[in-house]
Amino acid sequence: MKSVVVFKWAIDPRDIRVNADGSVDWSAVSPWVGDDDYLAVQVACSASGQEGEVTGLTLAGGDVAFAAARGAQRTVAIEGLPATADAMTVAKALAEAIHSFGDVDVVVIGDSAWEPSVPVMLGGLLGWTTVMAVDEAKFEGGKLHVTRRFGTGTQELCVSGPIVLGVAAKREEENKPGMRAVITARKKPVTTIQADELMKESVPAFTLHSTHLPEATPSRLFDGEDPDGAVSQLVQALQADGVF
User: Fold this and answer.
1) Strands annotated E in the chain
2) What angle do CA 125, 127, 128 make, to 5 degrees?
3) What is 30-98 written as a DSSP string?
4) Cβ(9)–Cβ(90) under 8 Å?
5) pLDDT one-digit tens code per residue, 138-151
6) What pTM does this model have?
């Protein structure tokens, strides 16, 4: 299996600076490692199997050894894409780079909270099946066995490539690579591709106007120092809501 793992492709909105006059300063912003990027590398390595090949794909400059330090054999870096590029432009650049790799069986990307529309757009541009909320994937018996979150439980899938897997980290990385592994990873092959060489065709307009979060239901707290009083308040609240 030939896998591609996308990392350092989204910007952290907390890095954006707002000037005194209200203008937004993007000059110091660049794609960075997301909370789900380490799991994406782990899933890509597992999905490729023992004899497979894993390629890291990133939009960030600087140190691009993140995926290589976690098992990728080589890294491809897309340079020249502005930090303010919209989701469609990012997905298009990634898709064109993946097409240039030739036969690819699996693409793994974190379903980043910073830019959640990119993974599904990437799958659409590639024309591949896309599975989101993935926890793990294993290549066994010539098939890819995927575990994804499903409601309050999990769902087991048996799929074949080419496919895009969107993963989300459940916890922080437990076994981070040490300095020796990072130094060794920096010696692995790195290829640079310019974004304008990939984006030969115009990209459909994609403008994000706003984000609406569902209204949060207010919580009611009862004083536990008086158990009888707390129970009485709880019963009254449930009655007021028509529970009984």
Assistant:
1) 2-7, 10-11, 17-18, 24-25, 31-32, 53-58, 74-79, 106-110, 129-140, 143-150, 153-159, 163-167, 190-194
2) 120
3) -EE--TTHHHHHHHHHHHH-TT-EEEEEES--S---TTGGGT-SEEEEEE---TT--HHHHHHHHHHHH
4) yes
5) 988 888 999 998 87
6) 0.81
Residues 65/68/69/72 CA torsion (nearest 10 deg): 160
What letter represents residue 56's amino acid?
G
Q: Please enumerate, as own/partner, the contacts of 81-89 that have beta carbons within 8 Å and a separation of 24 or more.
A: 81/195, 83/11, 83/26, 83/29, 83/30, 83/31, 84/26, 86/206, 86/207, 86/208, 87/115, 87/117, 87/118, 87/121, 87/206, 87/208, 88/121, 88/203, 88/204, 88/205, 88/206, 89/199, 89/203, 89/206
Higher pLDDT, residue 183 or 244: 183
Tell me the two tokens of residue 99: 């097409």
pLDDT tens-place string over residues 98-149 = 999 999 999 999 988 888 899 999 999 999 999 999 999 998 888 899 999 8
